[in-house]
């Protein structure tokens, strides 16, 4: 069981502090903050997420710039505490709509009420927003969601296309709509994070998709939901090693390495027709997490080259190919490439007619940055569109002679991006069925896909 | 409601407290509620609003749950400082615990349990009894946790009122939430008790396994962790358990997955069928890998656990090495752990892939990570003989990039590779020598110098290379100086020409006359003497073949690994330390310091009534005394200070004129080994017999005690006190002895500190002890202090420094004594025995038909004892001579060694 729970701002201010057992001194928040801020142990400068100071164990996670911390004196399960801290953040976000320092401060009474129901004497009672609703009576004061850094990947849809109502993500599950009416709607988001490492010759060394099917329900009366996935979905590589799974390429079958499910999910008919049945509790939660290493078509290919071009000079050529259909647009694409430490200057040359691209040489950490944010191809569109290709040339000037090894001293190139309405795994929600209460009951259903980069790297 | 809560933080001109007081007594409900919110707001920012206690409590009788909760929150905070006023709330609590609304009933019990005021505790029992049998599961689950709260305040009360039985009944409750809380509460109570309270029988096991399927994710973790203590009777039962736990591996909650893994690993130890085991390994691998897709914090936990699991079952993830490749955006703490596991999983089959990764990491930006990657390559070379050559060529490639810290790190690992594969890869020395002048880190320099010295005969210009270092000899760090000294001697022995001869003069001069580092000086003198008396012998010593080193990537000792594996999914498995190394939870009963008190530093607030009431608690909260701090992770921590003194005028402190704390009794702890000498016979102690002696464990001194109650009455409230003594021995913590029923006994290990309680006068081995309990007069008895319990683990001396010390002490410091009856019959046994008492064997010499043994030992504060034992092995008669700066301790030493030799 945990002894204390607290939330600290980036400056170390105590925003929330709850002591459940009175067995640890109150100064822990200060001790913790100082320790994390000036961490220097085992040759590392970043504190691990759990450590022990004078017999007190501190666990922390960072959520939207806030530090959620728990302390204990006993030999607790750390994954338990980390899950709990994330879950507390999520519950508070469900209630407040927006989680940040301001909303926490304004709603402190509600937050304390929640914390008392979530944890008793250090033992977790429930973290289900649904269950908590029966015990929690304060109402949230909703803060303005604009200009706030949102929580969780679903927040992407706020900046996404116009088809999706932007407010949904920051809506409290309990607060009354200003219009006095609650809209019946349910969101199902398929969020995939891609990790890829390309070798210098463009060959894929490792590739992985971490996916989540996330749900947020605003349906009244808790109807049962059925989610149907691809018919030919299969799970487990059947003991094959990573070295030979590629035999499955091209068959079109989606093979997941592993997956797990939220506790509300019933898998009775999963084997037979790949359908998940559940009564979604209120609040945001992952219905299913999955992991795939089966080969898939990467959305971007990167070609990077660095060559010496005379004394104290070198040239960098970066190419990005968007390998998805032209009906899809990606946004916020950014390439970064560490350059040799003795690089003094970099001059850039974009392709003729390039619009909306920015380049930068970060002097401090010797890094090249190339942003292809919105507005690329004149007035045809304002995003990177599938099928296109972009090139950047950069001339570098060095302050010292190279050792003839500049490829080793630069790179790897990393790419970050988001692609709405696209997923690389081809996992699909084929239909989303809501048990009807009456003929006229027809809530809004949103099934949304998004793909993000996790570690998307090309080596030189 | 309207507006937002931050308005409650605003202050007004009138003076906050009077204004709040007025509002709290308003006739309007809403106004009262707002006022309570303001009070809570003030409380959370640390303002003292305790003076409003009565006014807030007056708002308690309300049907409004929101308001009631706020008042309760206030009460929990301030009841401690206003215990008399808190009584005012009792009636409402008791009434609320019978309210028709289950939420209010639960709230009342929950809050009462949090108010740690004795008088309230009495009133808690009846409502708790009712609530444990309540119709509503929400009330029952709250009551279950409340039993644990009450146990923490007053364990006896819980046992007397039969709450433990009620709690056990709740294990069979039809509501899974209630079951989970009952399990959690019982597990905690068991943890703090040494009687078997919560034993898991095969019957409870099957009940809990059934409940598992219906519990919330958190309840599943409680249950799985409680069940992990269960030992299956046979392989069949183990298989059954595993079968029912395996579906948990598919849970989205990582804590559930890891707790299930722990359970399965434990049961697997009993399963004999290799097919079943192989199958289970196959099932566990994907969920373990999936943990690496969770948040980085959980990845870190998973990686630390996987590190242990693959040491026991290397096959489980043998094919998954790719998932441990570092992502560029992994936090550094994740990357470092991944590297460790990559080394562990590296095999001849995947080494090429692994090397490719390491090579890439070694050119990244983060210096610490790069260094670790370079070391990883070296460790792979040492681990995989067939891949050593490939590893070395990668290291050479990296050296060519000429990044300073990469080069230095590479040289350090190459030195180890040379030691692992002597006479194999020396051809690369030339390449290494090219980087010589860029080395600026001691370890790298020392490694390079070692290489030059070791292979001096193959390096044409070895003398020049070493000479280049000699100029700066006095400025070099000790590590480099030592290596330079040895390397120059090696060079001289291998190439006894003029150049090296001059060099050796310079070095020896520098290392003897010019230095004040004793290690360096000792080593130099030994070389000097060796070289001047017998150069051939010098060759045998200095150029002797070195033992081949081995791979250290499976570095955990098997016993430690066993213990850590039994603690998978806990902090212990993340720190890679056994729980007792960092858990300092000493049970405190009524004396818990409230936060506010601590913040104000009101240490004197420990009221005398607590000490005197005999139910007894330590004079200080164990939560924050330095003693607790001293037991933080790390080997052999010694307590730094005793508990602060509490003014206790009526206790035996006065009787024997002592001035430090009386240490009261709390609870028993682990028993000691062999029978203890009886110090207070039952005939003297009115039936109470006490046996005790001092002992040293893990670098700390303990007083091991056995209490036997042969009287007709139960004895409790034990306290102990030590009179001033030569070593200033005093108790470091409370004496932990439970109530002793007639005919029962208890043992305990009392941690001791030294230099606290020093007596004047000549050294004496006398230790006067006083023990008190609530039923009998104070008992006094004498013990003998054995000097060897003070000998520290740091007492081992190098031969050279032993000789040096021996020589530096005047002959008048040598004292000897004969023990005509002592016999050393087995040299090995005696050496072991003395080593166990931190007397370290230095050398053995034959003198006529006698054997002479030399040992070193050190007292705390570093006083050395040089010991010489002369005897004819197997015959009676041992002569012991010692030399020490402190010869007045000699009689004590002889007492002690005589006792040791007699055993």
Automatic annotation (TrEMBL), chain A:
It is found in: Endomembrane system. One of its GO terms (biological process) is intracellular protein transport. One of its GO terms (cellular component) is clathrin adaptor complex. Its main location: membrane. Residues 183-459 form the MHD domain. Keywords: Membrane, Protein transport, Transport. Belongs to the adaptor complexes medium subunit family. This is Clathrin adaptor, mu subunit.
Automatic annotation (TrEMBL), chain B:
It comes from the Eukaryota. Residues 672-782 form the Clathrin adaptor alpha/beta/gamma-adaptin appendage Ig-like subdomain domain. Its main location: membrane. One of its GO terms (molecular function) is clathrin binding. One of its GO terms (cellular component) is Golgi apparatus. Pfam families: Adaptin_N, Alpha_adaptinC2, B2-adapt-app_C. It is a peripheral membrane protein. It is found in: Cytoplasmic vesicle, Clathrin-coated vesicle membrane; Golgi apparatus, trans-Golgi network. Residues 586-647 are annotated as: Disordered. Keywords: Cytoplasmic vesicle, Golgi apparatus, Membrane, Protein transport, Transport. Residues 791-902 form the Beta-adaptin appendage C-terminal subdomain domain. Residues 626-640 have a biased composition (Low complexity). One of its GO terms (biological process) is vesicle-mediated transport. Belongs to the adaptor complexes large subunit family. Adaptor protein complexes are heterotetramers composed of two large adaptins (beta-type subunit and alpha-type or delta-type or epsilon-type or gamma-type subunit), a medium adaptin (mu-type subunit) and a small adaptin (sigma-type subunit). Subunit of clathrin-associated adaptor protein complex that plays a role in protein sorting in the late-Golgi/trans-Golgi network (TGN) and/or endosomes. The AP complexes mediate both the recruitment of clathrin to membranes and the recognition of sorting signals within the cytosolic tails of transmembrane cargo molecules. This is Beta-adaptin-like protein. It comes from Parasponia andersonii (Sponia andersonii).
